[in-house]
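**Backbone shape codes:**
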Amino acid sequence: MRRRFLSAGLLACASVSLLPASPASAHDFRVGDLVIDHPWSRAVGASAPTAAGYMSIANRGSLPDRLISAETPMARTVEAHEMSMTDGVMRMRPMPAGIPLPPGGTAWLRPGGMHLMLVGPTGTFVPGGRVPLTLRFERAGTVTVELEVASAGARAPATEHQGH
């Protein structure tokens, strides 16, 4: 059975600003058997049409799960997307069924691959700031993470370190 990836916005919360950065950087979150590591985004201006959310989601359980929706007060909607290279042309396609998380597997959401598209940012994403993002999973339930905002050209979050 296919599930539709629900794009949900919180228009009533459109005036919410970025959470202040804290000196200690929390970079992993847990819900059920899932571990969400290093959630981050790039800096964008208030007039940007989109922003993106990146992270890894590891399923440490024995049953499959799926990211079925996400929402943030900092964008009108959030959609799962995947980029791929076909005949030398970069293509992006929506993932309406969500992001599958097989048992023992990890979904890597990163630039140039799977990611969460934050459509219609409602404010500026400032380097060092944080963007709240609520993730809803088919089995594990719901968890709110914070996307750490890196510089506009970053390829990885500023707090990511080797060997972790």
User: Anything to note?
Assistant: Residues 1-25 have pLDDT under 50 and may be disordered. The radius of gyration is 15 Å. The chain has one domain: 6-13+27-145. DSSP finds no helices and twelve strands in the chain.
